Amino acid sequence: MVNTSCSTYLLESLHKTQKRAARLILGKDYTARSAELFRQLGWMNIHERIRYNTVVMVYNCLQSTAPKYMCDMFKLRENVSSRQTRSTARGDLYIPHCRTKLCQKSFKIQGALLWNDLPENVRTSSTLPSFKRNYWKHFRVLKEWD
Fold first, then answer.
1. Residues 86-116: pLDDT tens digits?
2. Rounded distance, CA 39 to CA 144, Å?
3. Among 7, 33, 75, 141, which residue's CB has the most CB atoms within a 10 Å radius?
4. Is-contact 91 123, C-beta < 8 A?
């Protein structure tokens, strides 16, 4: 799993390698659009894959199936603040204040941000397989795949 704090250079290198692999598998030349190739193969690009792996790990943390030190990273906003807001009613995660770019790229922050952006039907999945299935459906709707 590639983490969210990986350098831009390394991520772009992985993305280029992934595009080359898709072109090789489908026998296309370098002018073929990678988004279409990924759609044909049913692949997520490296950035989408990182988001997917991050929210799956957050789901595991919230279900207490991840290591305790990771589960302790995430708190529901309702447990941090006594005020009733839309975000506490939705079950959003608390996002601590960060001053540095490194902190903003951390799993703790990115995981909470990505989790809070998920629709409620994905977040309230009862099992890990149903969570993954609901996420994939959500992803396909965002990408307008068949």
1. 555 577 898 888 889 888 888 999 999 999 9
2. 10
3. 75
4. yes
